[in-house]
Design goal:
By secondary structure, this protein is of the alpha+beta class. Helices cover 18% and strands 31% of the residues.
Length: 102
């Protein structure tokens, strides 16, 4: 875990058109980096990073029989939260989780 790190987050290959990523694109963040987390083999990675001090998955959805589940690692700094692309990501994620979009 490291605080106040700048790194690039990009859509995972083939996931650029997922409803959660509409209007998001690559995103530079100033945030917290995490390395060594466990990930279920069933997650669907939507955004990732190549930053060596962070695990590759940064935004992902997970299977659940009754709910839409999304994990967004980002959002620990006001600098990241002020980014229009980050705000779009969160907005899209809420709509997707509420089944207001496909």
């Amino acid at each position: 875990y490291h605080e106040n790190v700048e790194f690039l987050v990009t859509p995972a290959a083939g996931k650029e058109s997922h409803p959660i990523l509409r209007g998001v694109g690559p995103l530079w963040v100033y945030d917290e980096a995490y390395r060594g987390m466990w990930f279920s083999p069933k997650i669907e990675v939507l955004m990732e990073t190549q930053y060596s001090e962070n695990d590759r998955p940064v935004v992902y959805i997970g299977p659940h029989p009754k709910a839409r589940v999304i994990y967004i690692q980002l959002g620990h700094s006001d600098r990241t939260m002020r980014e229009p692309a980050y705000q779009r990501l969160v907005h899209n994620a809420v709509l997707w989780a509420a089944r207001r979009t496909n």
